[in-house]
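User: Here's a chain of 621 residues. Predict its fold as tokens.
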Amino acid sequence: MLNGATLGYVLYDVPRRNLIKLVHVCVGEQARGSGLARKMVDAAVRLHPRRSLITASCRTDYGIDEFWRSLGMHVASERPGRALNGSILLNWVKRINVEEGLDLLEAASLASNLPLAVLDTNIIGDLFLPSDIRRDHREETAELRADWLQPLVTFAVSGEVDNEISQNQDQSARRRVREASQHLTRLSTLRPGDRSLEEGLLAATDPRLLAKDRSLRTDVLHVADAIHAGADYFVTNDSNVCLASEGWSHSEHPIRVVRPHQLVAALSPESFMTDFRSNLIDDGDLEWRGVEEVESELEPAFRVYDVETKPSTFAQRLRDLLARRRSTTVQKLVDAQGNLWALAAWELDGAVLRILLIRSVRGERGSTVAFQMLRHFRRAAWEHGATRLEITDPAISPTLEAALTADGFSGTEPRATVLGPATATAKDLGLASSAEVGLAERYRWPLVVQASGMATYVIPIQPRWATNLLGLSDGLISLRRRGLGLSRELVYFSGSRILPRDLPARILWYATADDGRRHPIQRIVARSLLVDSVRLPAGEALARFGKVGVLRKSEIEAAADKAGDINVIRFEDTELLRRPISRHDEIFKRYVKGNVQSMREVDPQMFDDVMVRQVSAGRPE
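Assistant: Prediction complete.
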């Protein structure tokens, strides 16, 4: 009160032991802007130190949403108001007295040993807005849904995300996004009591950037909540937030502001398991075809929107390359139906194969195609006598960036890798472990490390499975006629009780037929790197790995043992042997005794002897 006049009042209820429900917050005109409303709400909170949540419901047409935001509250839900003009009632919430302990969901998220990644509103929009709404970064952001990523990170959002969702004028889209994102933990905030962090971040931001983009003042609210929660990453597609973060003290605030593809790269294990789906690359041929002009369908399929902000930028880039016909080859990869899979341009410069443009199709197939293209160009370089592969495309997509990183290309421009030699010993290369051998062979394909001592397994496989898994066709040892060659990473389901422990290891695939054919295949036809093996109930194996294998549910269950368990063997970098090893060959008889009916460990020297036979056959075809 002032001179006997009431300046304001707050009415609230305490209907449950954890809740303060604001009913009325009223301030007279003469006291508005003085901070009185906040002081009254703070007083209500102080009077109830054991309460953990404060709420308020308010119609949007009152025009005071910013007041509730200034209290650090966020929109939890909405419902129709009772006004005749069809008003909307927003339900505002905030966790209070957080020093007494967080709610169980937030506490569990922050106590996890996993990295904490806080998502910006634009990421939430990419993930949950209707698919018919165009969003330039949706394909990149979709990688955050990858099954392999979920066990490696905890995702959360600031309550400010809900406030920004509520500003969407499309009621249907607004409700859809809010409902679809409810599983994400909402972080507590120290606003309005402590705004020092937000102010410090703004002070450290380039003033010219703040003048250019006033929304940064709101963006730092998300980042501040993330820092207070101890988050490791703040994930955004806002270029200005990324630029602003360059001026922030990373020693004082150890949080990385990253784009989705950078989070994927940061959390990718050394042996990067792509989201390969075997059913996405069927048995139909893929073919490289020459590009003679700027075809209209190429731009929407292959433009990298982050870098090539206008269609004309992509078109000019392609025109420049087409103008260099004497030295540069420009081709697109298509299937039998004419669908686009990839676009590339390259030139041979002495011992260097230079990739001037490299693009993969968007969507689920993109990761598979990107990984296979890199092996394809390694093979092409080797065939033409080149020992170095360089990527000089100025517009690298997030999908290709992940593939380049996992395949050992340098992180600086030009993105490059050195090939070969065809063979060398582990001792000569200074490799001390199986893991180092596996990476060396991936990073320097077609290098084969001899005398590595890696555990080696012969795995029998029927031709009908080998057709999809290894590239065998009608029992003949030949590559399928596809521009990309073999798949990079797959799984195989085995009934064997052997569970390899010393990984990575070698696999020699032994194709053997039991279907009564007159001339059955009984040969070692391919090799792979075994990167993981786990024994699981057949149902769990199917749920976790069914999409990266080639067996149907009934076949997986049939291969399981009496207890219903099956071995899941994950392998990568498969290569068909140029010279298959028959079971009647001296090499085979020296190391393998009797019939091979299930997975069998053999002397590592067998692999070395098999590969000596391959190297003597010359460069790969």
